[in-house]
Specification:
There is one protein chain. With 273 residues, the chain is of the alpha+beta class. It has 2 domains: 124 residues, Alpha-Beta Barrel (N-terminal domain of MutM-like DNA repair proteins), CATH 3.20.190.10; 124 residues, Helicase, Ruva Protein, domain 3. Helix content is 26%, strand content 21%. A hairpin with a 2-residue loop joins strand 10 and strand 11. The longest helix has 20 residues. It binds a DNA duplex (16 and 16 nucleotides) through loops.
Amino acid sequence: MPELPEVETVKNELLPYVIGRKITKVTLLWEGIVKEPSAEEFRSRLVGQAITGIARRGKYLPFSLSSGDALIIHLKMTGSLLIKQNSAEPPEYTRAVLYLDNDTALCFRDPRKFGVMRLVNDKDTIIGKLGPEPLEAGFTPQLLAQILAKRKTPMKALLCEQHLIAGIGSMYADEALFATGIHPLRTGESLTQREIESLHRAIRRILWAAIENKGASVNTYYRPDGTKGTAHNQFKVAHRFKQPCFVCGTPIERIKVRNRGSYFCPRCQPLST
DNA sequence: CCCGGAACCTGAAGGC
DNA sequence: TGCCTTCAGGTTCCGG
């Protein structure tokens, strides 16, 4: 599942293939992947434009174009952006192909059709509502304390809220909570100052380590060259249902928090002391 | 504004 | 073998 480290890896590894390249043709194999504008307008406004940059904001990938428009891609759960030879057949489940003027094709593969592309004048209407970037300097323990203060929502849900903190999803929320010994159902307001500082450090350390490992390939996440990341090899609790905790040996449990699977160690992450 | 739950979507895996 | 259920979860929308 692409979260901040996976999306950051996709951006970094896509950049050398696409920067400065002109889009020569757009093929939509499933038009529903384009949220706005219409499929027809999307194609005509994109063809002929050069890609001048790619950024990452939360889990969004804004591509800047020579026209001044922005192509904003969200991979959601199962999307991947793959670089192929433009003469090659696109991989199975490819929903859209951007052909570039260097003999390559950028394929948007997405088995579950959750992924989204938008072509917009102003990218801030989409990404402007996001919370702070957890790896930037402005994300301080004080800011995290402010975000969690007086909130009765479970910690697992709070960490996944994009308008509070941008880029964290289910896997890395589980990992950060385990590293801090916090049960996923603890409320935001129940955390002590000490726990908040520890959580702040854990979030940054875990996200940085996952970027160094090129993301986690739990299911269908692939890097642009088709290879997988290795960050999931570092997971302590995420997707380790019934397996022994590396710290105390207790079987990892799974509960639903806001309809999301949440993995945790019942002994290392007690709900009450 | 705060909070919780459903819907979207489909392949893989497990149970009977 | 084959059918049925569950699981995966980022985002958006709707309700109280």
